[in-house]
Amino acid sequence: MTLTRKRAAIRIRVFAPGSVGNVGPGLDILGLALAACGDRVEASWDPSKEIVIADPGHPSISTDPRRNTAGLAASEVLRRAGQAGRGVRLRVEKGLPLSGGQGGSAASAVAAAVAVNHLLDVPLDRMALLEACLAAEEAVAGRHADNIAPSLLGGIVLIRSLDPPDLVPLPVPRNLYVALARPEQQLRTMDGRAVLPGLVARDLAMYQAAQVGAMIAALGSGNLRLLGRALDDRIAEPARAPLLPGFEEAKAAALDAGALGASISGSGPTAFALVGSEAAGRRVAEAMATAYRRAGLSCQTLVSKVDRKGARLES
Amino acid sequence: MTLTRKRAAIRIRVFAPGSVGNVGPGLDILGLALAACGDRVEASWDPSKEIVIADPGHPSISTDPRRNTAGLAASEVLRRAGQAGRGVRLRVEKGLPLSGGQGGSAASAVAAAVAVNHLLDVPLDRMALLEACLAAEEAVAGRHADNIAPSLLGGIVLIRSLDPPDLVPLPVPRNLYVALARPEQQLRTMDGRAVLPGLVARDLAMYQAAQVGAMIAALGSGNLRLLGRALDDRIAEPARAPLLPGFEEAKAAALDAGALGASISGSGPTAFALVGSEAAGRRVAEAMATAYRRAGLSCQTLVSKVDRKGARLES
After folding, report:
1. Helix (H) and strand (E) counts for chain A?
2. pLDDT digits over A22-58, tens only?
């Protein structure tokens, strides 16, 4: 029984990076992982036969495992591994803001899924983990993988298809940095989705497709100017910008300060800009923050490389 | 006056390759040049002050320079070079079928534009030539550059934007071949455009964008299987296929015979398939031709590499 006692004491701690979803024109299909921020989940066996959220990471996050992406993802992993009904205890450390547009719900789901998979001695492969997280994310933020996929795999990821999942990891230029500015406002993911148009003009759809294509070509060739020109979202950004006071001014300030391009991270309220150096990132982040403050909103900034590792064990 | 007499005798002969427009999901934005076929235009000064179409290349093509893409492109080049009113004589050799979906009108325009530009000692750069050809193509087939751009530049080209033109040349995998099957039927480009939907569902638009992105990622990484999976057009092909008897059967036959993917070339009637070797190309082309013949249509086939040079002087 040594093994059982030993396993009962195991604590698995996993870090999953934050992410920018909807990278520019890539609504629901293009996401990138952020090296500078993320969530952590610690998982251990629990004598109960339930998922126990011992710490949800923030007083506003539910400790009901059916309303918590970490709990939902843990439960999905157990089910897919044929271990439903086992008790797992989760402690979440939120490094990412709630409802910020930095992929916080996805990172918690990914960290929990990877942690529970390790607790079970890794029965599930990455695609099965992705599907478990997708089911969890779907319950709180709609069925899309543009935060989950980069948080799980790292890098910049194109979601070619969801059913079945077909993920395309893209080349990441060495000198690419992301500047983020998060104004002090809330926008629920569901509200950010409700304003999206149901139909788009065919010409606009193909323009958007051309921008996605040009971003991917630019990532491959390292042509950062082209990457910036192609960061031109004409479907989601025009619909969401009116919900985000200060965003237009912050975007203009980012471009003035030398950003390659800028848009809304996920459904917001965080704004992001792509830049070609860390110094440019600091300048651009500060310019965005100043614009938000002028609009009466306090603002936090971050400059990050693209994370290349994805979710990983810390113990 | 030696120079004048010498120049009066100059004949410039230019070859411009045929092309596949609308490559799969890339409606209006993705085209590839075909090494195995093209049009030729010979240009010389004419003592008149007009564009003279001495040979339109086919009895069905107008000799009125205002209704002929070679004539229109020649006229645009003269105008943009500040030489409007000079007389130019054009002889067109059609290597490409009329209304076939192999970029015949674009190739004639490109060959004429490049030839007249050489007659004038190359006053226009490639972007100005592109705009001249675009104006010519617009008059007969709508404002799109997915045939003109590859015919002019060679290779596989993404049209990121038209106004102003921003063309992105894409990597071409070494072992990529194109199999073409042209059934004996006519479909005017304008009719092929009239059936396109004016509006598309947002989710469909983003799926299409993801396929364009995945094709470009696959060209960069040389992942031909991904290239084939992403050759999935859900906007133009479903609208045009009903106008093209035998197409669905030919596509199914191509996939059965080992094609990576298949779709309609331009607005048809030519069908094309992407393949990973010349031998596969022959097999796939024959399978498509057999399917068309079973549907009661005679059919011509072609297997081609991607042309990498674009329009070029032959004298």
Report:
1. 11, 12
2. 999 999 999 999 999 999 999 999 999 999 999 999 9
> How many residues can be counted in chain B?
315
Residues of B in contact with A168 (CB under 8 A): 213-214, 217-218, 226
The proportion of chain B whose per-residue pLDDT surpasses 90, expressed as a percent, equals 88
Spell out the domains of chain A, with CATH numbers in brackets.
2-169+308-313 (3.30.230.10), 177-305 (3.30.70.890)
Q: Which residues of A touch B (CB under 8 A)?
A: 25-30, 158-161, 166, 168, 170-171, 196-218, 220-221, 226, 229-230, 235
User: In this predicted complex, what is the ipTM?
Assistant: 0.95
> What is the average per-residue pLDDT within B88-112?
94
Closest residue in A to B196 (Cα–Cα): A202
- At residue B203's C-alpha, the angle toward residues B199 and B206, to 5°, is 90
DSSP assignment letter at B1:
-
What's the token pair of residue A9? 């004491």
Q: Which residues of B touch A229 (CB under 8 A)?
A: 160, 166
Cα(A130)–Cα(A160) distance, integer angstroms: 14
Name the residue with higher pLDDT: A223 or B163: A223
Stretch B165-171: mean pLDDT:
97
pLDDT of A2 > 50? The answer is: no
Question: Which residue among A203, A210, A221 sits closest to B160, beta carbon to beta carbon?
Answer: A210
- What is d(CA B216, CA B122) in angstroms, rounded to the nearest whole number? 33
φ, ψ dihedrals at B89, nearest 5°: -110, 130
Give me the residues paired with residue A88 across strands. Answer: A45, A51
A217 with B214: Cβ contact below 8 A: no
Q: Which residue of chain A is at minimal alpha-carbon distance from B217?
A: A216
Instruction: Note whether B206 contacts A29, CB cutoff 8 Å.
Output: yes
Alpha carbon distances (Å) from B120 to A221, B110, B253: 35, 15, 49
Alpha carbons A107 and A40: distance in angstroms, whole number: 8
Q: Provide the mean pLDDT of chain B.
A: 94
Return the number of other C-beta atoms located less than 10 Å from residue B57's C-beta.
22
Q: A314 CB contacts (<8 Å, ≥6 apart)?
A: A13, A14, A15, A40
pLDDT bracket for residue A7 (50, 70, 90): low
Check residue B8 and give its pLDDT: 55
């008149």: which residue's tokens? B48
Of residues A13, A20, A185, the one with CA closest to residue A98: A185
